[in-house]
């Protein structure tokens, strides 16, 4: 096994842990970053001061917003970026041709002390073309960072966005659980998904490792296999259960459950619809309640939800109630969730009245069968009684769009602005080291993002009109009088520049920030159907410079 | 940082490493596996002997085959399955309600010494419903394994299948490179993808960490940023280059390149189409050649492929040729790959003739712009001159279908067969501990897979007709007289049963096995368009038993 744990690094007197996954090392990069490093070094260009922007060109999932995530892991990588001797040997063996000794020495001394990273806060709602990260430093080192940083941001932002979209459809009042571990793209496809779904607004995960690593609340009860592993209540040997207040003990909880089942079966209010229920299921529910009397939640669809699962759940819940325990609820994992949740709710309400159980009608209903944005939306339209969703495959693999296309482009080298041209205008990069601002309007919503040259003055708040131009379409421009101006890029890694380093917030704070950010968006930007694109602009000065450089670099075509 | 390295385990005198990713621990599971373990333990059922099958219900990507992968990582997990004290404390704090001391002791003693794992060899072509793994052991322990084993098999098999499908479309003669690291789903979404794409038939990866971990060949040259980081050849200070045989030194390689560029510009055979090329690009190519004279491969689309990139490449390649070096080729990363590769090929052929460079016409052309199965297929139909494909996003994220739906179902407990029913017949599980065979016909192709009860005799090879029945459709059945019978499930983890443990093969052998397996498939099963489903069957005896059990368990409906 080759994976290793990077030691903690010291920066400005502080120690910072390495990336969560110890496999994230300086070797988690494309080989060409090392071949280029060698070529830069051979050309004496390796210390040329380069500025790269990390950004995406299109919001995912047909939407008009993205949640930026992955920053903390990037900074942890950068803080601990150091090649080991074994890694250096491997690189030198791998580079085609022989590798000069001077380069080996150079690799030994590489770290990120001369790199500066400016970034938007993690959990912020972001838009195409605006840099999420700006990384400055010696060109060879910054290029080594390109691939791992893209890897750490791309999926993190994609899955946080997916989670936020699920939250928007489900509504604030629903509990959202991430259940994706078994179908995720590998072990930390799963662990990352748990982390970034939490940031995007999920409440809990089933993934124990992620719960432990990040302090995310954990949820889970039992599976179909648990139900079918039982044959009948006869096999339950330990049948006693203390009252919840410890005052006495019920010696035969199994019989208590059976007697409640009979009462349910004979209850006129239930219209005599309950016949024989499945005994293996009843045994499983009873056993589970004996183990977790304070947290009884039963999966009710192993045999037949309405004829077996729900009545069996109610029998056990009523027996628990006798002993002072309040049951949690049921989980539906198949069938017509709108219909079944409604039918189950009716039974719970009838039982509340018939047997005088206050609030039993509000028993929680969890649904969890291949859910995604579309099914949540369809459930809302049909009407349903689901309180909690467990969402797996479609959430964590981002099934609707499995990749976000962040890129990392050179925008300046040795103070010379650089532009990447393309026949496709959407792929032309915005040159120069830039500053980025978000301008807010009267109602508190954000109006537009604007990029300016590094040395332009910051847009002013009161009274002054600011001209915001589309970077490539000359006819698209607007004057804005902002009520508030927020600078987006902050210094998260100052290197040896002496600048103040922005603290990395706790996961919970990133999540709160994300939720607040979404509340500050004008609803038409974040709605599912035909959302309005959010405006991203450049200053008049930057606009002029982009087009000057473009004409300068583009070859004049010749029609033949 | 919480990730840890599991120590190696000893089994039958052999030490086995832990999983590649140290984050794969017994906590990488759903919380409900632990709540169930507690409930089983409370009910005294935790040591009930259970048999679970891991299988999928539908082949991915609209195809009719799947490549099984992920076995080695599963066995490494199982071989090292042991909870640490810290993990046990975390579980006990996390379980709802208080956790009895006896359960803590039980968790301390859990390992897989009493578990047996039977599996199909990694790299085998597999089909729906046939168990890829059969895991037997104490029900509570086997359920803890469910989630991590599904996680390790689902993505591995999905991405290996995706790679195999890309190989089938590209054809055997093409070089296939995996370039997905930056867009993969997290760090080991990338590392796993590199490993399993290699198994599925790729030749190399750009991912240095994966190359080092698994010994996969590495490939990579330079990016657009490298090209645009140069301004002009004037900035190249170290201009000398030894001849390849070391006999002499060219003092000004930059001028040699410039003189070749003039010759190309004036060459009548090229129809005077070559004008001024981009000097920043020429500088970058020259520098790269100075660093890697034996491995000169240039990315030619930063400015304009035909007017700048290809002529600049040829000038450098001709200069290298003067000094005895053979160039590798070009890479195209945008535009019309069919057209551009054809035009570049023509130039190479003209230069071969015009300047007398043997085999220069065969200079390698790599293409790498958002490629997938469809674009490879379209390129084949249009005709192209590409020799090598670099494939990223669509390959490693399995963009066309981001998840495989393997499930893990209880088929027997304490020697009692169990069936999981569903309104959807395709979701009904096949009960019983089973044996699985692949039957081969006269032409060497596999004809059908058949599952039998554990104690049924093995299908015989010569002369005997075997009745193969569709598990759920009574009218679908066929007699088969096999020429060869292969038992699919082998013992990869014997626990303490004393059985012989199948060795885990080397990665290269798994890859060879996969390639050979695909060659043994009848072509209509693996073709892209309307492939024929491969037949999966059960023995007559197992068929009868399934339907007996089904009728026994299913409730009789009542129409009202």
TrEMBL record, chains A, B:
It holds the Pfam family NAPRTase_C. One of its GO terms (molecular function) is nicotinate phosphoribosyltransferase activity. It comes from the Eukaryota. Residues 433-545 form the Nicotinate phosphoribosyltransferase C-terminal domain. SUPFAM superfamilies: Nicotinate/Quinolinate PRTase C-terminal domain-like (SSF51690), Nicotinate/Quinolinate PRTase N-terminal domain-like (SSF54675). Transiently phosphorylated on a His residue during the reaction cycle. Phosphorylation strongly increases the affinity for substrates and increases the rate of nicotinate D-ribonucleotide production. Dephosphorylation regenerates the low-affinity form of the enzyme, leading to product release. One of its GO terms (cellular component) is cytosol. Keywords: Glycosyltransferase, Ligase, Magnesium, Manganese, Metal-binding, Phosphoprotein, Pyridine nucleotide biosynthesis, Transferase. Its cofactor is Mn(2+); Mg(2+). The keyword Metal-binding applies. The keyword Metal-binding applies. Pathway: Cofactor biosynthesis; NAD(+) biosynthesis; nicotinate D-ribonucleotide from nicotinate: step 1/1. Transmembrane segments: none annotated. Its EC number is 6.3.4.21. Residues 27-154 form the Nicotinate phosphoribosyltransferase N-terminal domain. It catalyses: 5-phospho-alpha-D-ribose 1-diphosphate + nicotinate + ATP + H2O = nicotinate beta-D-ribonucleotide + ADP + phosphate + diphosphate. GO terms for biological process: NAD+ biosynthetic process via the salvage pathway. Belongs to the NAPRTase family. Catalyzes the first step in the biosynthesis of NAD from nicotinic acid, the ATP-dependent synthesis of beta-nicotinate D-ribonucleotide from nicotinate and 5-phospho-D-ribose 1-phosphate. Helps prevent cellular oxidative stress via its role in NAD biosynthesis. NCBIfam families: NAPRTase_put. This is Nicotinate phosphoribosyltransferase. It comes from Gossypium raimondii (Peruvian cotton).
């Amino acid at each position: 096994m080759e994976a290793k744990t990077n030691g903690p690094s010291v920066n400005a007197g502080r120690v910072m842990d390495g990336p969560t996954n110890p496999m994230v090392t300086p070797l988690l990069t494309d080989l060409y970053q090392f071949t280029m490093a060698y070529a830069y070094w051979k050309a004496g260009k390796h210390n040329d001061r380069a500025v790269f922007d990390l950004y995406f060109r299109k919001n995912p999932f047909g939407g008009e917003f993205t949640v930026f995530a992955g920053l903390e892991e990037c900074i942890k990588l950068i803080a601990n970026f150091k090649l080991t001797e074994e890694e250096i040997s491997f690189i030198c063996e791998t580079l085609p041709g022989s590798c000069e000794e001077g380069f080996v020495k150079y690799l030994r001394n590489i770290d990120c002390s001369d790199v500066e990273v400016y970034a938007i806060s993690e959990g912020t709602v972001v838009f195409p073309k605006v840099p999420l990260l700006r990384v400055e430093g010696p060109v060879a080192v910054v290029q080594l960072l390109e691939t791992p940083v893209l890897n750490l941001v791309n999926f993190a932002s994609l899955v946080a966005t997916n989670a936020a979209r699920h939250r928007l459809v489900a509504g604030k009042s629903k509990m959202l659980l991430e259940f994706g571990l078994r179908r995720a793209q590998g072990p930390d496809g799963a662990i990352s998904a748990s982390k970034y779904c939490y940031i995007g607004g999920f409440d809990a995960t089933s993934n124990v490792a992620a719960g432990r690593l990040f302090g995310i609340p954990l949820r889970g009860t039992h599976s179909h296999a648990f139900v079918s592993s039982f044959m009948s209540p006869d096999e339950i040997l330990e049948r006693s259960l203390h009252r919840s207040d410890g005052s006495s003990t019920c010696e035969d909880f199994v019989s208590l459950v059976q007697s409640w089942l009979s009462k349910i079966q004979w209850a006129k209010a239930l219209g005599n619809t309950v016949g024989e229920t499945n005994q293996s299921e009843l045994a499983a529910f009873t056993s589970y309640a004996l183990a977790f009397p304070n947290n009884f939640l039963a999966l009710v669809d192993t045999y037949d939800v309405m004829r077996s699962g729900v009545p069996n759940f109610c029998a056990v819940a009523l027996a628990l109630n006798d002993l002072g325990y309040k049951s949690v609820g049921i989980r539906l994992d198949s069938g017509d969730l709108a219909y079944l949740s409604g039918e189950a709710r009716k039974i719970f309400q009838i039982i509340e009245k018939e047997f005088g159980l206050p609030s039993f009608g509000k028993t929680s209903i969890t649904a969890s069968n291949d859910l995604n944005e579309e099914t949540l939306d369809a459930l809302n339209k049909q009407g349903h009684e689901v309180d909690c969703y467990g969402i797996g495959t479609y959430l964590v693999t981002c099934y609707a769009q499995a990749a976000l296309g962040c890129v990392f482009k050179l925008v300046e080298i040795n103070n010379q602005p650089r532009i990447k041209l393309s026949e496709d205008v959407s792929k032309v990069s915005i040159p120069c080291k830039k500053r980025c601002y978000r301008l807010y309007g009267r109602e508190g919503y954000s109006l537009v993002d604007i990029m300016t040259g590094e040395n332009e003055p910051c847009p002013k708040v009161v009274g002054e009109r600011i001209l915001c131009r589309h970077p490539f379409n000359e006819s698209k421009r607007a004057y804005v009088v902002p009520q508030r101006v927020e600078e987006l890029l902050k210094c998260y890694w100052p290197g040896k520049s002496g600048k103040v380093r922005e603290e990395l917030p706790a996961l919970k704070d990133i999540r709160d920030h994300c939720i607040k950010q979404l509340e500050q968006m004008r609803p038409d930007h974040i709605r599912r159907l035909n959302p309005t694109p959010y405006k991203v602009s450049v200053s008049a000065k930057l606009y002029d410079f982009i087009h000057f450089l473009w004409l300068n670099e583009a070859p004049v075509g010749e029609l033949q």
